[in-house]
Design brief:
The protein is an alpha+beta fold. The chain folds into two domains: 127 residues, no CATH class; 182 residues, no CATH class. It has five helices and 17 strands. The strands form four sheets. Strands 5, 6, 7, 9, 10, 11 and 14 form a seven-stranded mixed beta sheet that branches. Strands 1-2-3-17-15 form a five-stranded mixed beta sheet. β10 and β11 form a beta hairpin. α1 packs antiparallel against α2 and α4 runs parallel beside α5. The model has no long low-confidence stretch (mean pLDDT 84).
Length: 315
């Protein structure tokens, strides 16, 4: 009887020890797997940001885009697989840059199981192209017939020009657009949209004119805050209706560097204008702007290209 109790106690101790070993091994492996997962996430974050950095210059230079992708990855942990940084045909030739990153992730507790390290891998691709929707635009319209947009060989960039904030072809239309399309033309926050850009998603299409827009102190203060910076303006094709029913047909977007507003004395100096009219002085400029890319093969073929590109991660 005593021998049986001793045997059972011995078996219990042995089972307890074996259980503790398994438990400790599983816990150790769980810790290592968590560390490997974090390393993979870091590698993925580096890959994503590397191609986003590179795609910023795709519209200008594919060689620079490749170099910028490599530079970002090297400064943030490295691990770029040789030959993985390249440009591809996404919706247009050389509009997509790719990268693959591989990094060793050391094991700590897993070494007792013979696993000294594992290799984590991350792939990413980013595309640059015309946006089908944008964020952060300012509520000032530009006619597609502006000489530097519609002239021979244009759109033309970095050439000083003026934009009128005045009657634009319909009674009650003064060059401001109500992005909210409320239909009531209540009191859209034009000054906030100039200062910070419209925060919602803006598609192409019809937008209400704001017939109540006045060049008051709030609007001029907003323009003053943005002087010397780039803004994104909607480009319109037609303007229909009158007063509160007037609508602009927005067909694209254009970047505009605002030098000054008022009566232009020089390229960077303007004098105040009286009344509700105003003149913006500056130049159209190519910009990379926050927006959404088309996912279809058309790449927004019906949208005019006024030098605005957006960059998104793609599968």
């Amino acid at each position: 009887m005593t021998n049986r109790l001793n045997d059972e106690r011995g078996q219990a101790v042995l089972l307890t020890v074996l259980f503790l070993i398994v438990l400790l091994g599983a816990s150790a492996l769980t810790i290592d797997v968590g560390a490997w997962y974090r390393e993979q996430r870091q590698a993925q974050a580096t890959a994503d940001q590397a191609v986003l950095s590179g795609a910023q210059t795709l519209p200008v230079s594919t060689a620079q885009a490749l170099a910028d992708t490599q530079t970002y990855a090297d400064k943030n942990g490295g691990g770029v697989v040789a030959g993985s940084i390249k440009t591809l045909f996404g919706l247009q030739p050389n509009d997509t840059v790719t990268v693959t990153i591989q990094r060793p992730a050391p094991g700590f507790f897993a070494k007792v199981l013979g696993v000294s390290s594992v290799t984590v891998q991350a792939k990413a691709a980013a595309r640059a192209g015309l946006p089908i929707a944008v964020y952060g635009a300012a509520p000032i319209v530009v006619s597609k017939d502006h000489p530097l947009l519609a002239g021979a060989g244009c759109p033309c960039f970095n050439q000083e020009t003026t934009l009128p904030l005045d009657k634009t072809g319909a009674p009650g239309a003064f060059g401001f657009v109500d992005f909210d399309n409320t239909g009531s033309n209540g009191n859209p926050p034009l000054s906030a949209w100039i200062t910070d850009g419209y925060q919602g998603e803006l598609d192409l299409g019809l937008y209400d004119s704001d017939p109540g827009a006045k060049m008051n102190g709030v609007l001029t203060s907003a323009l003053d805050l943005r002087t010397g910076s780039d803004l994104l303006f909607p480009v319109f094709d037609t303007l229909g209706g009158t007063g509160s029913t007037a609508q602009y047909d927005i067909i694209g977007w254009v970047g505009f560097h605002l030098d000054c507003f008022g009566l232009a004395v020089s390229t960077t100096n303007c004098q105040n204008q009286n009344g509700n009219s105003q003149t913006l002085t500056g130049y159209f400029t190519k910009v990379i702007w926050k927006g959404l890319l088309s996912s279809s093969g058309s790449n927004n073929s019906n949208e005019p290209d006024y030098g605005v590109d957006t960059v998104n991660l793609v599968n």
